[in-house]
Amino acid sequence: MTGIEETRAMNYGATEDNNNDEGEASEEKHLEEVYEELGLGKAQYLTWSALSFVAFSDVSELIILAILIPTLRCEWKLSLAFEVALGCSVFIFYAVGGVLFGSLSDRIGRRKVILIASSIMLVSSFLSAASVNKWMFLLTRVVVGLCIGANFPTALVFSSEITSAKYKEYGVFTLIIVANIAMLVTTVEALIFLNPFGWRVFIIIATLPILIAMILLVLVPESPRYLVASGQEKEAKKALRRYFEWNDKPYPENLKIRTFTCERGNYADLLKPQFKKETILLCIMYAGNIFLIFGLIVYLPLAISNNICGGVGSGSIKRTCKTLTRGELLDMTFITAAGALSVILGFFAARKLGRVCPIRTFGIIVFLLTVSLLVCINMNVTKAAFFFIKFFTSAFNIIIWFIIPELYPTVIRNTATGAINCWGKSAGALSTFLVYCLYSFSPLYVIIVFVIASLVSTVGGILWSKETKDVTYQEFIEDEVHDHGDAS
Are the beta carbons of 385 and 447 closer than 8 angstroms? Predict the structure, then answer.
């Protein structure tokens, strides 16, 4: 899956304008300088709005299963084995989608991958709402998971590539906070629609944002950074011109094009000396953190519906045919709200303190809070612990998403995102499997694996030492540029 392609590198440099009668040379401009002139305006806001609906829909689809499984257990008499398969299916194929489409996005473009995956996801989601049996439902959710793996990481990369370094965190911040709001809104939708109208209507309502995203994406051009890195001169100029028009800024003319041969979408590049240590640590941190986040998504309705207070002293839990009550959904809504609030903390901490200090601090706090779940004081204290674990895991997560596009150049940025995302979502699938298997025996076993996962991500955070706060985005791997030289 190396995706070796001919790539023409577009750089902005001094050249004579062939259409300029006076033959005046233009001022040298690199891509970062062009983005600085572009500034922040309607172009970014429209693009982020479209991508936000993508993120919103993706996260909603993940939450749907956690909410519906207690209901489907009753309607279709699900066995434990099928329940585990259903609960894990979305997360497993989310991981697969990240790998398959991560490299593809670096080769054919961010926008194209999102539109293809969103179209498939829309159809699959509606088909899942019309499922006549559990097998059809499982198959459609597998396809949905695959599409989420394509969409969410690509949308995050796309959002980060349309501004200068001054505003580079804004796009990722927007999508992550929307993703956390989506968790909150989806639980509210369940509160409003699930019991009165049934789970099929609930799925249809939760799927509608992806339709809005597709409509908006038709208006948005491809990421200029991707077009630059893939050597698509005319398309890159056209996209940049549209962004400048939307921001009411004069478009910089006289752009010089240089060409050379390099690779795009090569997974082997992630283990080159300049990336190897960081790639391994990012996989460790993200896997541990996502294990905990996804585990809590699945465990939370089980714990609340069974009034599970703590780990130590808890006996086996009997699987019952029970739909979540209004009060239980309200508890889930309250805890889920922590994610949206924490993203704000993560954003400002990253902007002021950089990446190293917050990721270490948040990791240690999450570990201590997870350990506290082992002991039951009362149910309200346990719910508070859930709230703050959700709060700091989400803050930890956004720091990782800031680091990834800063560390990797455009030619492998989505490849890196897909690979790291695969490790994380594989851990999420494992977490889902373990929660469904272990909670019937004892919540203590579930809490123990949560503690181990939080310890793993915390150790990764402590070992992380590369500060990327002031890094300017790169389009190419430097040694490849030097090795191949100009081919123009």
Answer: no
